[in-house]
Write a structure and sequence with these properties.
By secondary structure, the chain is mainly α. It has nine helices and no strands. Helix 1 runs parallel beside helix 3, helix 3 packs antiparallel against helix 9 (about 155-175) and helix 7 packs antiparallel against helix 8 (about 140-150).
Length: about 190
């Protein structure tokens, strides 16, 4: 599961079980990225609060598929296989057609994604790249370019928050050796 102790709901004490119920309901298993917080449940609550605010809040303006695409791209840049796997599924689910997923996923596998992303979307991904790999290289001009590309300041904030969230969670996963959960057709594998 990870290089540190992780606790699933069945082994949790009443306090931790209550926190798990609050974030994932009555599931008997929680994703490893959440179980790694078991020794400090307050970070579990903070993590889920940030995730929901950045990725699933009803007031967000960027389409979910673009938020997921940014998450996949940032996770690929950080070489976080765990988050790539989970959010490729999220990207696929957020898109209407499988063909769209294949084309976008292929583009996200490149150092600087191009078509089928629009010019504006490519600007968002370039900002994500800079903020991920060289944060101090981001300049006011990058924000101006996003505005010129049609993004409002609120949408720019959303892009920034998605990138920052994924940089955070990628470092939690990689830094603690969180393993990808096995699926019926694939064994578990390490995230880094």
């Amino acid at each position: 599961m990870s290089w540190i102790e992780s606790i699933q709901p069945a082994q949790a004490d009443d306090g931790l079980r209550k926190h798990y119920r609050r974030v994932v309901g009555d599931r008997e298993r929680v994703d490893n990225v959440l179980a790694v917080h078991a020794l400090r449940p307050q970070s579990l609550l903070a993590h889920m609060g940030l995730y929901k605010a950045v990725m699933h809040h009803s007031d967000l303006q960027l389409p979910l598929w673009l938020r997921e695409a940014i998450g996949v791209y940032v996770s690929r840049l950080n070489r976080c296989d765990y988050c790539v796997a989970h959010h490729r599924c999220g990207l696929s689910a957020a898109l209407a057609q499988a063909q769209q997923f294949d084309a976008l996923d292929q583009a996200l596998s490149t150092p600087r994604p191009g078509p089928p992303f629009t010019t504006s979307e490519q600007l968002a991904l370039e900002y994500a790249r800079k903020l991920t790999v060289a944060p101090s290289s981001v300049l006011a001009e990058d924000i101006h370019a996003l505005r010129e590309g049609g993004f409002s300041d609120g949408e720019i904030l959303e892009i920034n928050q998605v990138v920052a969230y994924f940089c955070y969670v990628n470092r939690v996963v990689i830094g603690l050796g969180v393993e990808l959960e096995p699926t019926p057709d694939a064994p578990a594998r390490a995230s880094a």
